[in-house]
Amino acid sequence: MTSPREPLTRDRIIDTALHIVDGQGLGRLTMRRLGDALQVEAMAIYHHLPRGKEELLDGLIAHVAALPAAWPRPANGTRPAAGDWRAHLRSWGGAYRARLLDHAGVLPLLMTRRNPTALAETTASLREVLRMAGFLDAAAATGAHTILGYVIGHAALEARATAARRPDDPEEAVDWDHRFAAGLDVVLAGLLTLP
Amino acid sequence: MTSPREPLTRDRIIDTALHIVDGQGLGRLTMRRLGDALQVEAMAIYHHLPRGKEELLDGLIAHVAALPAAWPRPANGTRPAAGDWRAHLRSWGGAYRARLLDHAGVLPLLMTRRNPTALAETTASLREVLRMAGFLDAAAATGAHTILGYVIGHAALEARATAARRPDDPEEAVDWDHRFAAGLDVVLAGLLTLP
DNA sequence: CCCATCGCCTTTACGTAGTAAGGTCCGATC
DNA sequence: GATCGGACCTTACTACGTAAAGGCGATGGG
What is the pLDDT of residues A71-88, one digit of tens each? Predict the structure, then answer.
């Protein structure tokens, strides 16, 4: 009379794994624990992810890191307002940072050589936004890496700082939301100096 | 008649560990392998690093991440040239990036909550440089995190991209040295917009 | 000279990890 | 109903981190 347990899926496995990482940290994500959470023996996972844990971790970072900065297609023939790219990148940056911090446990995986495509997609979308904003190709490529590097790096600094903080406020507290936004503005302002 | 093996030291252990990580990757750094490299049983390491692998990894990132951007003390009473801070930060950034890429294997550790002090020192030194360059405290704090975030994040992007590259040049190659420098210039130029 | 002590290292052993190899069960197809 | 293939389970192996306790040579006091 136990509920018949919906079948295993690649997506369901990765979602559950992400849930474990968010709740207990990357170090506690093991195949056996993941199996338990899915009400399945650990070895069952290998039928859906033949490359085992490697593939699982690849799936995690793809799930977290792929958030393209799609320029909203302008409605019927109206041109996108030329000055909007900064506002657009500001809001994209905020969303990307929020996602990275929501899943801070996978941040270390972003530094490993795993899954090179997940970030490539995001980089390409940033480059495209800058190109459409009028930057030359070389400047757009530089700008894309500069922005993405800043967002990821700053998120990593935040994750470290907030994780290591004792709750009784040992040093002066930092308004990380504001600091991230201010730094992003610095980067976006600096882009104007590119040719 | 075997050479009498110089005694174990905390520093020698960490140096050897770093050598293993650089040569074979973080995943192959194990206590037993480290013991072999030191010609010692694995458990001997615990006498010098009582907290075991945690302490070892902490030592690794302290060794890599602590490179303060010390402003060169001006020689006898000469004031530092006011405009030099950008050049100084450019060269510091290049050195920091080079070190991160030399030890790309420890980059994932920088993202974990380990050893909060190693980066704090570097951040403080950046803040100090900016303060001495005339920035207000708040702007210096923002600028320090912006610079450090960019440098770390960009180095991570580079490490990923170069590690995943097939040697036969699948996409157009990127001049990473130039791209990093250009992005750092973007950030430094953007700092001028801070109050 | 002997023996107690201490610092450094080794031995042994336990629990947990990832996963290879093969087995089991069940629904679909002919 | 026999066959078959996919989804899941069982067992077992190797490697890891490390707790616990043992050995062992140098040192210093009697």
Answer: 766 666 566 665 689 999
